[in-house]
Amino acid sequence: MGEESVQSPVMKKFEYFTAPLLVHSTKEILDNFGQDGWELVQIVPGMNPENLVAYFKREIEDK
User: What InterPro entries does the annotation carry (predicted)?
Assistant: First the structure.
């Protein structure tokens, strides 16, 4: 019997980024990051009610 070739699964790698969000321009800011390949992970409150902090991730391409 021939030996079957078993490929191990490729583990994805990510980089992360945090950015402040202003509540009056949230959509525009998120759209800009999305165009650069960043995926929104979470939004949390910032230092005051007018600010939020967004956490993004994007896959690192193996070179």
Answer: YjzH-like (IPR025234)
